[in-house]
Design a protein that fits this description.
The protein is an alpha/beta fold and 207 residues long. It has eight helices and six strands. The strands form two sheets. The chain has a four-stranded mixed sheet. Helix 4 packs antiparallel against helix 8 and helix 6 crosses helix 8. The mean pLDDT is 92. This is Fatty acid methyltransferase. It comes from Micromonospora saelicesensis. One of its GO terms (molecular function) is methyltransferase activity. Keywords: Methyltransferase, Transferase.
Amino acid sequence: MVRLAREVDGFVSGVTISRVQAEIAAKRFDREGLTDRCDVICADFAELPAEPHYDAMVAVEAVVHSPSLENLIPSLVDRLRPGGRLILCDDWATDKDRGLAARERCLDQFRAGWRVGSLHTVAELVAMSERAGLRLVEDLDLTPYLHLGRPRDRVIKLAVGATALLPRLRNRLVEMPFWANMIGGSALQAGLSRRWLEYHLIVLEKA
């Protein structure tokens, strides 16, 4: 937000469900002399205030956690001005190997570990966006730019793989934030490397 405020004219507003994050942001804006141009509200992005309306909305690795992307998109569109843009950078499912047992297990672990509520393909996103009054402006596949399989990632993969030998243990571990992050992150790495998942930057525009 600080970088955006320095690059563009106008007010920059952020949303987080974490009150601590909102407090940290307020201190940062004060330190940067941007309290008159930046603000963070503590709210659910699916239940934003009706006002103000925005020229652009940016969500980085966020909408995948929505319980219903089908319901979220229209609510965001309502808060965009005509010609406004919705910019999404997130993980999206692909149709590769759909129905394959290994693929489905991987995606299930990703959903469970990272509390993913809405895992859709880009085509599904575009279809629901068009129904809500948005048109696709750009779809950029960023997957080739990701650094997968780093030494740390391989260690995590081994640790998570060991829990697969004890399904009941894994079911308990996935309820613990630390292990849930490890399990979900390892599944994400596997999904991206096999192209069951892809990381895309998508730009949509309101008519």
